[in-house]
Structure formats: structure tokens, C-alpha cells
Amino acid sequence: MMISYCEKCQNNIPNPLLNPTDRNDLLAFVRANKPLQAMALLKEKEYMNLYDSKVFVTHLSETYGKCHKCNYDQLKHEYEVCPKCRALNINWE
């Protein structure tokens, strides 16, 4: 499991190696504003514990290219620190 660091919240962000189906399901939950279901998926499939799943899910961008914290909308990479607010974004398409 890769770990990234968020300067904004000062947390280590776990990044599990998700299979493609789980990754798509997770992203669908986040984009549908259902973070609790996303967290439950990560815990039930034993990717991570509940605390780590919360930290991970809160850093997923709801909209591709847009910061989850300040809505800066020019993110281009899968894992990117927002130049405006310094929050780590997991920016999946």
C-alpha cells in the first residue's frame, strides 16, 4: 500500500491497491455524495480500517480536476497537491 502525505490536514493518506471494479464502485459512491458507502466498501473488502478509509475517501475529488477542499479546478494528475490550498487530491477519472 502506497502512502502519501497531505500538507493541509497533516495526515498520511493510505492508498490501497484496488481492483478495477472496487475502484469504480468507490468512485461512484464518492461522486454520488455517499462517502459512508465508500468507507464501508473499503472496510468490508479489507482494504483498510475505518479510520484510514475516512482519511482516504475525504481526499478523493468528487469532480475530476477539481480540488476536494477549495474547488481549484485545474488539477491534471492522479495524485496532486493543490497549488492553492496545499491539500492532497486523489484525482481519478
Descriptive report:
With 93 residues, the protein is of the alpha+beta class. The chain has one domain. It contains 3 helices and 4 strands; from the N terminus they run E-E-H-H-H-E-E. The strands form 2 sheets. A two-stranded antiparallel ribbon has the order 1-2. Strands 3-4 form a two-stranded antiparallel ribbon. Helix 1 runs antiparallel to helix 2 and helix 2 packs across helix 3 (50-58). The chain is globular.
SSE order and pairing:
Elements: E1 2-6, E2 11-15, H1 20-31, H2 35-44, H3 50-58, E3 79-81, E4 88-90
Antiparallel strand pairs: 1-2, 3-4
Give a short synopsis of this structure:
With 93 residues, the protein is an alpha+beta fold.
- Through-space gap between termini: 20 Å
Query: Could you give the count of β-strands?
Result: 4
Strand-pairing-aware structural class: alpha+beta
What general outline do the C-alpha atoms trace?
globular
Number of domains: 1
Q: Which descriptors apply to this entry?
A:
alpha+beta; two-stranded antiparallel sheet; 93 residues; two-stranded antiparallel ribbon; 4 strands
